[in-house]
Each structure stands twice: as C-alpha cells, then as structure tokens.
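Give me the fold.
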Amino acid sequence: MARESPHTSQVSARWEFAGCVLMRNLTTSAVILLGMAAALAAQTQPPAPSQSQPPAAISQAPPPPTQPHPSAPAEYNCEPVNPDATPEARALLKTLCAVSGKGILSGQHNYPNQRDLDTERVHAITGRYPAIWGSDFGFTGDEDKDSILHRDLMIAEAKKQAAAGSIIYLCWHMLRPTEDEPGEPGVSWRNSVQARLTDDQWAELITPDTPLHKRWEKYMDTAAGYLQQLQEAHIPVLWRPMHENNGGFFWWGGRPGMGGTAQLYREVYARMVYVHHLNNLLWVWNQNGPAPVGEFFNYFPGRQYVDVVSYDNYRELGDTYYYQMLALAQGKPIALGEVGAPPSAEVLEAQPRWTWFMVWAGMVNDAILPAYNTPYVLKRGDPIRGTQPPQ
C-alpha cells in the first residue's frame, strides 16, 4: 500500500475540518428551524385585554389555539407581555434588551432565610456586588435556610437591595398543594417539593373551582401579597415561577403538552395578572438541562406569557441549548437562570446573547473572580458598555 504524502494528509485534514464545520452549521440551522416551528405551534390565544375588573373565567387561563396554522409573530419590540406593566417593569425589560450582545449581568441567589449571605460573599471576594440579587419564597419552617417564617424580612431585603441599585429576581420551591406550609426541614424537599402528583390530582389541579385548584390558588395568593409590597414600592421583579419545568424532579414539572406544565404556568400568569394585578413582574420562563434536543418546546406556554426565556445549567454550557433558547425567544432576551459558576470567556464569546447569569446560593468561591474582573460582566452600578465579549 502506497504511503500517503504529508501534503495529501494536510489537504485531507482540512476537508475533514470543513466538513465538520458545515455539518455543525447545518445542525444549528435545523435546531433553530425546529425551534421556531415548535414555538409557533405552541402559541395560545393572547391574554384577556386590560380591564379594571377580572375577566369572567378568571381562574382559567386562555384555551389552546383553534387555528392549526397560526401566523408568525410580529417583530419583537421589547415590550412586556402584560400590557399593563408598570413603568419600572418596562424600563427593566429595556435594560435587558440593551444588554443582549453587549454584556451580561451578574447575579447571585441567596436562600430566603439568609437574605444577603451569598451576595456579601461575592463582595468579599471581588470587591463588587452582583447586578442582580435573587431569592426564593421558601417552603420549610423553623430557622432553616429555606424557612418561610421570615418572608417579611426577605421582602425587606429585596427593598434594601433595590434601593442600592440591584435588580430583584425571585422564584419559589413551593410545596405540593396537597400539603400545608410550612414543610419539615430535611423531609419536605424529597417528600413534597420533589414528590409527584397523581394524574388524577394533576387534572384536578388545572381544573377551576375544584378543591385542589382552590388550595393552589391560596398558595399563589400568599406569594402575591408579598409581590404586591414590591409593586407598591415601585420595584420591578424578574419572576421565575415553576422553574426548570421540563424536569420531572419537581412536582410541577415533567408534564409535556398543552394540558401539562405549560398550562399550570399559564394559570400562574392568569392569577397574578388578572386577579392580583401584579404589573411589576417580568415573566421568566425556565428550563433545565441536559435535555434531548427539542424537549423544551413541549413545555413552552406561548410567547404571550413569556418576557424572558431562560435555561439552568450546572455542566458544560454547550451551544445546542443556546440556539434552542434563541429559537424559542424569537428576539426576546435569553438568560442563564441558574449556574454553578459564571460562564467562561470562551462561552461568552461564542454565546453573546445571554443577558444574565445567576450563581446559586452556597456555590460562591474564588472561581467567580475571572468573570467579575472583566468589564463585559456587569456588576451593580456598571453602565451598559458597547464592548465585545472577552477574548
């Protein structure tokens, strides 16, 4: 067998590389096209128009579409999905749109009963505060880190952070509506938050006026009372309800299709917007990975319920998820809802449209320093820069 010359080997290698690049571009395009088609198919009728009184079927979110071929959405104009959004919420969304591609907002989650512990750790390590302060409504009792007993102090901390210039970001690891608050520390995480509802219970949950639906409404009403305090203080909130909802590890998640998790998300929207008139919320829809290509689209509630499309990642941040988020967002901001560490400079260069990252509580260490030392990562008080992603 004749020996291949070095020149022949180099040419062959170049063609192999070119082929890989071509296949990757084709794959990326296919993912984007799949995402846009699925996102369009997932559209539902728009929320009821703004009015002083709640619509008649107030506890039930708008029904699925009746037309098999919905029209393409109009070009995104960076306006909130809630037509009655407060000026502060509108301004916050404009900020997110302005950040996209020019920088990424730093964020830090704090357990509800620890208020600002991790945010202060960030400051101790970097000398700067993150741009976003995050917390949770909690689910346990006593003085556990996730305790609900001091929600008033958590809201007071949110007001303090907002006054200092932080963006406020809230989620909720809530108990199943079959149980009463507070949960038991060390027990209720597995036995309630991560437990399941039966199919019959789920059907009851999303059916208005049933006993289980009414219990769930009381949960929502509890959170709404605290969110109302922030609205009265003119504080907008990045609100991430039913997060990681493609995952079957939370009771609300892992139910694809229009009558599943997406329907419950729409029910949250209807309750908060139409009943409680919480107009200070920007609606952050959230997924978790790793996940099969295309899975996220099975949980999308419709563009008219989503201001920001976000993704939680505790592993290598592959570009597959980035392109899926872009396909679903169709111009709306995308974000990293939870991470174990800030994305690297290499990731930000390849994926420049992420608008924020949120490091989870208890995971702050010196690994955050490279991110906080680059001007592309925006800290509290930083102006939005027209810089390129870090090289």
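The longest strand covers residues 281-288.
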